[in-house]
Design a protein that fits this description.
By secondary structure, the protein is α/β, with parallel strands linked by helices. 48% of the residues lie in helices and 10% in strands. It contains 10 helices and 11 strands. The strands form 3 sheets. The chain has a 5-stranded mixed sheet. β10 and β11 form a beta hairpin. α2 crosses α3, α5 crosses α6 and α9 packs across α10. The longest helix is centred in the middle third of the chain and has 26 residues. The chain is elongated and about 80 Å long. The chain starts with a strand and ends in a 14-residue tail after the last helix.
């Protein structure tokens, strides 16, 4: 019997390598493909990793290899319907052994090819089963027909997936694939909750309504400029150090501010008292004093959202949810 779906929570080197390439790709696409034709100033490396996750999953890298942040993003929509009781059961199964699941027999070369192809389609194309795999009761014997799963307390693996000797249907393969993904998700969700007490910044963005995205797009994309997010003055060395520290806290520890950045329409409106963003020239105006931590988070938050809205709107246009890009302000 061959073990399947071993839990891995570290980002493999291939993801990190592809992240750097994806990071450069985001820069190029932002400059060449955004409707305003603008370049974007700030691109945190985590965004490259997230994009690399999407690229890799589409080329058959399993969900267990993409790391907890990318995997949680990638599977969130499909897994949100799992109830608390089912999630707890799956978590218990996933934690029982060194290996999450094992098949009752070896797969043939053809079966392995089908399994890998359907896994790609499940992950990249949203090809899901109509039903769920049957779970055997503790004292129930496997009948030899169809696919079924049994938890195996005390074994080296968490559960045993029974396969018939006949040819499996596509539905049966998809039920197996979804069950393995649920096991992985349940454990990763627990790890996530243990590590982070707040909603991640990406999850906060995904919860934004279309109206909020449209308003943010108008705010950030209305200026007729080539470079977005320039500064009215250079940050001091101390401010730059704090900027990098708070960027890491924002991305990894979910630090954020509930106070929105001050917004002005024209540079003439700036009073020099606090950090502000100007719509007409897409510029940050910093006071002569050093920025507070709150202001630093406001700046970081808007930079990240500026990057996110183009990815989200483009994604929604591609899948048909949007007819086109939102409207911008008509500046005088």
């Amino acid at each position: 019997m061959r073990p399947m779906n071993e839990i891995e929570i570290e980002l493999p080197q291939i993801v990190l390598d592809r992240a750097d390439a994806a990071y450069a790709q985001i820069r190029q696409q932002a400059a060449q493909e955004s409707p305003a034709g603008r370049r974007v100033k700030s691109f945190p490396r985590v965004a490259g990793i997230l994009l690399a996750v999407v690229i890799l999953s589409a080329t058959a890298v399993s969900a267990a290899a993409v790391g907890i942040v990318g995997y949680r993003r990638y599977m969130a929509e499909r897994m949100t319907d799992i109830g608390t009781e089912e999630l707890g059961h799956l978590e218990m199964v996933a934690e029982q052994g060194n290996v999450t699941a094992e098949f009752s027999r070896e797969l043939t070369a053809r079966e392995r090819s089908i399994y890998e192809q359907l896994t790609r389609e499940y992950e990249a194309d949203g090809k899901y089963p109509a039903g769920q795999i049957r779970e055997l009761a503790e004292d129930e014997n496997y009948s030899g027909t169809g696919v079924a799963v049994r938890s195996t307390p005390g074994e080296e693996y968490g559960c045993l997936i029974y396969l018939p000797d006949t040819v499996l249907t596509e539905e049966e393969w998809l039920e197996i694939i979804e069950y393995l993904h649920k096991l992985d998700y349940s454990l990763r969700e627990k790890l996530w909750q243990q590590k982070y007490s707040e909603v991640s910044y990406f999850d906060r963005y995904e919860q934004m309504t279309d109206a909020e995205i449209d308003e943010l797009y108008a705010l950030l994309a209305s200026a007729p400029v080539d470079v977005w997010g320039t500064d009215s003055r250079n940050l001091t060395a101390e401010e730059q150090s704090r900027y990098e520290q708070w960027t890491e806290k924002y991305e990894v520890e979910n630090a954020y501010t509930e106070s929105p950045i001050k917004v002005i329409t024209d540079p003439e409106e700036y009073d020099g008292q606090e950090l502000a963003y100007c719509i007409s020239d897409a510029r940050f105006y910093e006071p002569e004093r050093e920025l507070t931590d709150e202001e630093m988070l406001q700046l970081i938050d808007l930079e990240h959202k500026n990057q996110y809205i183009f990815e989200r709107i483009g994604r929604e246009i591609e899948c048909g949810k949007r007819a086109g890009w939102p409207q911008t302000y008509h500046l005088q």
